[in-house]
Design brief:
- The protein is an alpha/beta fold.
- It folds into two domains: about 180 residues, Rossmann fold, CATH 3.40.50.620; about 70 residues, Uridine Diphospho-n-acetylenolpyruvylglucosamine Reductase, domain 3, CATH 3.30.465.60.
- It has a five-stranded parallel β-sheet with strand order 3-2-1-4-5, with helices on both faces. The chain has a four-stranded antiparallel β-sheet with strand order 6-9-8-7.
- The two termini are about 35 Å apart.
């Protein structure tokens, strides 16, 4: 099996690379995305390149000048676009170093942003995360015990990023609580898959959808259906406003739902246009 191992140069990904080298007979490709947010980020790329060369592993990298004002979401989006391109190129799976504390932080971030129950069903299922049940402290101990070098990203200490602020607040959460949240995460992901299957069966393939059906479903069910129809492009308030438009809009009206999403109405049906921004 081939794996694209995402290596930033930090302790988490360096431990992941070491473990995947030692365990199993896998073909590994080391991948590093240089976001260009920090002036010295090229040093991370050089470090990871040298590590890959030392172990005789293929190395792939990409640099993009996102700039110091780029947010975490954009950096993540561009990084995963790079990783998925490599996965297609090598016909490989992606492996990342997300660990238990990362999961706690991600759930907390999503819940604070109003994602509802979906905030506990995070993380792309197409990516493997071998360290997801392991705490950060255990990874640091492993690296120190095995003399694994790593680089520190100074932006991890900055309160300018929401994740960093949450990380500081979450550092004292008991291990048992983290594991309970991990169990909830597994349950919610299964629930999400089941709901998506039911929603897809209910709404049909499109491109035209019944206004009557959306108007007469209980609001939570209608919002889930609308989220599926709009491919997750809308926030919860935007979904609520779009659902109201479905109920009251006159025939031939249009509705700008936000995020490049426009709804078109006839008497009994509606269709939509999605523009990737």
């Amino acid at each position: 099996m081939k794996y694209i191992v995402a290596v930033s140069g930090g302790v988490d990904s360096m431990v992941l690379l070491d473990i995947m080298r030692r365990v199993g007979d896998h073909e590994l490709i080391v991948a590093h995305f240089d976001h260009g947010i920090r002036p010295d980020s090229h040093l991370d790329a050089e470090f990871v390149s040298n590590v890959a060369k030392y172990h005789g592993l293929p190395f792939e990298t990409r640099r993009e000048e996102l700039g110091p004002s780029a947010g975490e979401a954009l950096a993540r989006e561009r990084r995963y676009a790079f990783l998925h391109e490599l996965a297609e190129k090598y016909n490989a799976r992606i492996a990342t170093a997300h660990h238990l504390d990362d999961l706690v932080e991600t759930v907390a971030i999503n819940v604070t942003r109003g994602t509802g129950w979906r905030g506990a069903a995070v993380l792309d299922s197409k990516v493997i995360r071998p360290l997801i049940d392991t705490e950060k402290s255990a990874l640091i101990a492993y690296a120190q015990r095995n003399n694994i070098p790593w680089r520190e990203d100074p932006t991890n200490a900055s309160d300018a990023y929401l994740r960093n602020r949450i990380r500081k607040q979450a550092k004292d959460i008991p291990t048992q609580t983290k594991r309970e949240l991990r169990a909830l995460h597994v349950h919610q992901k299964a629930l999400k898959r089941a709901i998506q299957q039911e929603v897809q069966a209910l709404i049909g393939p499109g491109p035209y959808y019944s206004r009557y059906m959306f108007s007469n479903l209980p609001a939570p069910a209608a919002l889930e259906c609308l989220r599926e129809v709009t491919d997750g492009a809308l926030t919860r308030p935007q979904l609520a406003r779009a659902l109201h438009a479905i109920k009251v809009a006159r025939p031939h009206a249009t509705f700008e739902a936000g995020n490049g999403t426009k709804l078109y109405f006839s008497t009994r049906q509606f269709s939509l246009q999605l523009i990737k921004l």
